[in-house]
Amino acid sequence: MRGFITMAVKHIKPRTPGSRGTILLDRTDLTKKHSGKNIVKSLVKKLKKNTGRNNQGRITCRHKGGGNKKKYRLVDFKRDKIGVPATVREIEYDPNRNVHLALLFYVDGDKRYILAPKGLSIGATVSSGPEAEFKPGNAMALRDIPLGEFVHNIEMTPGRGGQMVRSAGLAAQLLAKEGEFATLRLPSAEMRKVPLDCFATIGELGNSDIKNTVLGKAGRSRHRGIKPTVRGSVMNPVDHPHGGGEGKCPIGGIPKSPWGKRQGLKTRSRKKGSNRLIITSRKGTKVAGI
Hints:
Order of helices and strands: EEEEEEEEEEEEEEEEEHE
CATH class of the largest domain: Mainly Beta
Number of domains: 2
CATH superfamily of the largest domain: Nucleic acid-binding proteins
Number of helices: 1
């Protein structure tokens, strides 16, 4: 369908009911891959569908199932090739996450995927280690990053690989360094201490316009493996605590999950070891145990 492009999103002309109000991402600047061809086979693996079920076949994550076939891209979250420069050969779409991937060709012949930050283009050179420049895509330890810089793909344990700030458009800010810890302000507004030896990547993650998209029809959700969500109030009492009643009956009590458990309870353990590293939680209060 033809449409008009505004920045990185594309408004579809309402020629059919499914296209009315649809806003999709404009991916013309990405490297095109035709039906999975011409991909680096060493960097992908088969992704088996589990439809939200565990090893016993029971549904443990609802509203999952179906969807198009896809392969998992092996992303380098560790960035452990210290001092070896690489060239960005392609910027690709990843069906498993909302941020794009950059395909790196290292000078020693190695090839790896990394999360593509904002401002990283094809042909750019990136590296990791204390000698790397302060530009988007380069990775180094927090002790080597200047205060005030925005970072992503942050490790929580040195050498384990990035675990925090990995979604599209996100970045954390390095605020302070004291002793063996750095203080970061996460996108959730949580203030957290992270060891200075942990690696992080400079810059803000790209594809921030994904939050402005409108799928337009239920079929696009089904293609992504997302099944419809049915309200508990329209079910029978045997199927949900909110079910039953005459007409549109209100809940009439404390909201409960489909298994009758009270909702809204805090599930984070008060004895969790990393609580001592949280200065201020995302709710703006100190975490118990600090």
